[in-house]
Amino acid sequence: DFTPCSNFRVKPKRDESMPKTYQIGELARQADVPVETVRYYESLKLLPKPGRAANNYRQYTQVHLERLSFIRHCRSLDMSIDEIRQLLRVRDRPEADCAEVNAVLDEHIEHVGQKLSELQRLKRQLIALRERCQTASRGADCGILAGLAETQAIGSERPRDGHRKRSVHRD
Q: Alpha-carbon Rg of the chain, whole angstroms?
């Protein structure tokens, strides 16, 4: 007769022939992203739907981890969700021509060039503002504050609306 000597349960040894699975927290740790990011990418259908364990927990595989790492790398290059979606479509079809990938990257490079131009324009505006106040003085006499209060942006051809052209979700 077997009588347990404690209330501790022993986990059965994992069958090595079975693929490694991760719960959402472990997947997030492995990919170095917050759990919310995993759920976000799932909601956008960038990650395939995970299987469920007997306890109804999501069970992610190495495929999920590799895909999540791919998405994270794309995001670190400031690629949009739509760009990533296009890249994943080709990645999911290994026999497909990579011309679409080249086109996505060419367009992204163009976008980065535009952002650099905008940042250079912003830098010129900030330098022009800084030149309005060379020495510390009373706030009422500050050339920078006066310049910021003007309706036309300093050193620019047109006023800026301050809105971003693209929505960016950071990991």
A: 26
